[in-house]
Amino acid sequence: MSEAAADSALRAYERVIIGIDPGTNVMGYGVLGIAGRRTAVVGMGAVKFRASESHYLRLRRIHESVIGLMERFLPDEMAIEAPFFGKNVQSMLKLGRAQGVAMVAALSRDVPITEYEPRKIKMAITGNGAASKEQVQEMLRRILGIDRADIPAELDATDALAAALCHYYESSRPARAAGPRSWKEFIARNPDKLR
Asked: pLDDT of 163-173, one tens digit each?
């Protein structure tokens, strides 16, 4: 598809949400197009980084990759998976840096970011916050009607798509009215109701 045709196809959507699953070895991405209440997979994949490269060079490649994705898909919003707390502090630090670099790339294109914990994403997609990556992938396949042949081998891609779908679900909920927390607050807000 030519760049002009891809740009025209993206304009058919009211919203485009990109999900990012950051990592210093593999970074997953998934893009959803939203038209009314319909969702469509616009793209998904994974960017692999060479293990022989220094950590800092990989961070640069993450930044360049996210900038490229921003220019290719023109997202309105970005959902990113938050690092989970693990036992290895060095791994957490590297993952946090990868996430930060991806966020800076999105912010440099004025794309607002929402961060979701892995458990929240899994809960939104499968109804189980402890679901496996394979269970998340299978539920996404069913929810979004993705052909098995179109699913990348890397689970990072479907993790990223899950973040995008979670964001769609969360941002599409009607805003709840913030009611009074006590009778005293109710009276303060509604002095005319006491007459």
From this structure: 999 999 999 87
Q: Choosing from 77, 154, 156, 159, which is the catalytic residue?
A: 156
Residue 194 DSSP one-character state: G
pLDDT of residue 4: 56
Residue 111 structure tokens: 């794309």
Q: Which of 77, 81, 138, 159 is catalytic?
A: 81
Told to judge if 156 belongs to the known catalytic residues of this protein, a careful annotator would answer yes
Q: Do 116 and 136 touch, CB atoms closer than 8 A?
A: no
Q: What is the pTM of this model?
A: 0.84
- Give the model's confidence band at 8: pLDDT under 50 very low, under 70 low, under 90 confident, else very high: low
Query: Is 159 among the catalytic positions?
Result: no
**CATH of the structural domain 3-194, one choice from 3.40.50.300, 3.40.50.2300, 3.30.565.10, 3.30.420.10:** 3.30.420.10
In the annotation, is 7 catalytic? no
User: Which backbone phi and psi does 62 adopt, to 5 degrees?
Assistant: -60, -45
